[in-house]
Write a structure and sequence with these properties.
Blueprint: E1 13-15, E2 19-22, H1 26-37, H2 57-73, E3 79-88, E4 91-101, H3 103-106, E5 108-115, H4 124-139, E6 144-150, H5 154-163, E7 166-175, E8 178-188, H6 189-195, E9 201-203
Protein name: GNAT family N-acetyltransferase
Pfam family, one: Acetyltransf_3
GO molecular function: protein N-terminal-serine acetyltransferase activity; protein-N-terminal-alanine acetyltransferase activity
């Protein structure tokens, strides 16, 4: 990604022992779109409330591109969504998102992610979520992180439990025309600190703080 003085998120980078999380450049974004088009979950189930993966491959790929561009276009200090590419050994393997609404006041973030199917079951989902949780709690001063997964999504729920999230009630949604139960999850700062087990390095944060509604010396 070419560094942009007026959009310092292009220089933001989260690094774990195996992964690099970063704003994708055009080629990386196109590769992510192709990865999503090839499949990110068993087609027999739909783990997302918004069924963006239901469609022909070209349609799914365009949805990824449009979603990424939309997060950048809609960004404000009061309502932001940091959509990052996740790279392993130089190749993009999925995306990790961290969102905040009135974050400077509420100090609460929401996470969401996906991985190409060939990268499931290797602990990478845990590692990339740990990266953005470190960014949120240690970098931005969050007090809470929330997430959710449908009750039949054992892999996602397992990641949350491993990282210290606690159950936070349920919701019911219509997914593919049927009732689906979503388990809400919440992680507070104390539980995050207790369950930390992955080293994370954050580069380029200081210049980005005003974009999150925080003073530069936060």
């Amino acid at each position: 990604m070419v560094e942009m003085r007026h959009w310092p998120l292009t220089s933001l980078e989260l690094v774990t022992p195996r992964l690099r999380l970063h704003v994708p450049d055009a080629a990386q974004l196109d590769a992510l779109a192709g990865l999503a088009a090839a499949g990110v979950h068993d087609p027999g189930v739909q783990p997302f409330t918004v069924g963006w993966t239901d469609g022909e491959p070209d349609v799914v790929a365009r949805r990824v591109l449009q979603y990424a561009w939309g997060t950048w276009a809609r960004w404000s200090e009061q309502d932001w969504s940091l959509w990052l590419a996740v790279s392993l050994d130089g190749a993009v393997i999925g995306s990790q998102e961290l969102s905040g609404h009135e974050f400077a006041v509420r100090r609460e973030v929401t996470t969401g992610s996906w991985l190409g199917r060939g990268f499931h079951g290797k602990g990478l989902g845990t590692e990339m979520r740990a990266a953005v949780l470190h960014f949120a709690f240690a970098g931005l001063g969050a007090r809470h992180a929330v997430s959710g997964a449908y009750v039949d999504n054992a892999a996602s729920l397992g990641v949350s439990r491993k990282l210290g999230y606690r159950d936070d009630g349920v919701e019911h949604h219509a997914v593919r025309g049927t009732d689906a139960t979503l388990q809400r999850l919440r992680l507070n700062r104390e539980d995050w600190e207790t369950h930390r087990s992955i080293d994370v390095r954050v580069d380029g944060l200081d210049a980005c703080l005003p974009l999150f509604g925080l003073p530069a010396d936060e």
